[in-house]
Amino acid sequence: MNKQDIPFLSATQLSRLIQSKEVSPVEATEAYLDRIEKVDGKLNSYITVCRDEALKSAREAEQAIAAGRYLGPLHGVPVAVKDQCYTKGIRTTAGSTILWDFVPDYDATVVTGLKNAGAIMLGKLNLSEFALGDSFVHPAGTPKNPWDLTRNPGMSSSGSAAATGAFLCASSLGEDTGGSIRIPAAWSGLVGLRPTWGLVSRYGVLPASWSMDTVGPITRTVEDCAITLQAIAGYDPNDKYTWNQPVPDYQQALAGDITGIRVGLLTEKTYSDDVDREVRDAVVAASGVLGELGAPVKTVSLPIIVHGGTASKCITDMEGAAVHYERLKTQIGDYDHNTRVRLLTAILTPAQSYYKAQKFREMLRQELLELLKEVDVVVLPTSPAAAPKIPDGPGIKSQEDAHSRMAGIRSFTGPFNLASVPAISVPCGFTSDNMPISLQIVGRPFEDATVMKVAHAYEQATTWHTRRPPI
What is the pTM of this model? Predict the structure, then answer.
């Protein structure tokens, strides 16, 4: 096929062509590198492009496949990772000038997983400073949304979304603490999975919040998500918080229909006054599609969820402040304005606030798990509105802005971080100004395969994922 068309294939489509030797890993890697060079100046999605390393890995993959040593669906497929993940011999900046020249001497476990699966590492992706989500200044340039360059492509994992959405990598890794896989996926028209907490190792990943950080895929299709998760999931003796249990075949689990899977449409977040009408209509319509596919749908209620964003933000910020406490003593002026204010505010927050948020966390988790006995998955919007405009300056503008940052969108994603359950975002429509809308599907702990199965069934019954951004 024409080399310039290769980046527009899904990772799974490209995988099959590589396996059948219709496309070589070298051709695929060159095609992506060419597109990065042509397009990324408009998007600022990459901090570091590993051209030489990628081409070397591609040649090795080509030789291995030609010799019959095919490793699986990511072999020879070009991917990229959020620059929060350690990469041996390649700088890892966390989006901060403080670590701008930091070069790790080992790979994060998730990077090792991708390499062991034969994936080709294209480079390191842009993000908010230290993955905290609200920074204004990005040393590598502000990431832009491929659907509208004036809009935000996401919060912390912004570069992962921008690169994947603009066809600058076949699949990517993000990291989700309060929604930073699902929100970028939603705002950029992609699939984003926050796996069950403890399913994926965080060894070699710069921390934001020890009790909620989770690495996961940002991809163009659910099947791409499944094959990416397969490469990074599983027990890691270097991360004592990973679970030692078998990892299912996620790609195989997508097969079959969803007849009988019980779906609960969450009233508090779907019909909330802060949800744009276009978003609400798209999510309700999506639940109807699931019903037509054989999954019984009913409305469900979880009143406690309305406070989830506030509790999530409290815990995230206070744990983040603990991570940065010593550095703040000596390098406070080197932090981005928004990051600095956020961390200092957390340091000054009374300990009883953290204690209260943790008590709330356990209440929410128990109530959600009880609800998930009544239904198999819960669905709601990923974001109450489409991607906003990129801020024109740092700082909080008003009381309403402060409330939005504290509760706002995080009240749609943060509750599921608190509960440590899997949640996926999948495109379910577009606004009148052609910006993506997404459906969030939440399941029980370690039932990541179920949430992907429901998302895949919906995706295959609709065409939202086939649209391309105008870049």
Answer: 0.97
